[in-house]
Amino acid sequence: MSAGAPSGQVRAAVIEDISESEADRVLTETTDPKAHLMSDEWKAFISIGTAFAAHDTVHHKSREYARDPVHINSAEGFNDRVHRTISGVFHHINPHHADLYFNEIGFRWSQRVVTGQALRKTRKGQQVIKTL
Fold first, then answer.
1. DSSP classification of residue 113
2. What is the DSSP letter of 6?
3. Helices assigned H by DSSP within the chain
4. Angle at CA of residue 29, ends 27 and 33, nearest 5°
5. Contact (CB, 8 A) for 76 and 58
6. What is the Cα–Cα distance from 92 to 114, expressed in whole angstroms?
């Protein structure tokens, strides 16, 4: 990634239930099977992951949040952005129009641009270069 590069696309939609079959349907319809799926340890993702070119899991129960390039921080960051936008900007979302709100939040998220890199220290004191 280089400075001035787009940070990536995100899509969001309202789903009625959080079941394995619904998650499988959504991922199958919206994600390229050649993609590298990165997920947490939810058991539905384990079976769904076999349909993708690669699948890696981080184990939050073991206090693992990232392993080399494997993480779900982008998904969790977007989810947090949705919650902050609802409480700070929209205050209330009508369920009938929720997809429109999520499309707006997703559009804004997808327009972010990488601005550069910065030297940071980890909790263990190691220096790493982070993309901003």
1. B
2. B
3. 20-30, 43-48, 73-85, 98-110
4. 65
5. no
6. 31
Query: How is the chain split into domains, by residue range?
Result: 20-131
Burial of 39 (0-12, 13-18, 19+ CB in 10 A): buried
Query: 7 pLDDT band (50/70/90 cuts)?
Result: low
Joined tokens for residue 81: 């952005």
CA of residue 26 relative to chain centroid, distance: 14
Give the pLDDT confidence of 11-44 residue by residue, as tens digits.
888 887 888 898 888 888 888 999 999 999 988 8
Which pairing describes strands 117-121 and 70-71: parallel, antiparallel, or unpaired? unpaired
The length of the chain, given as a count of residues:
132
Q: Name, in order, each residue with C-beta under 8 angstroms of 64's C-beta and a sequence gap of 6 or more.
A: 58
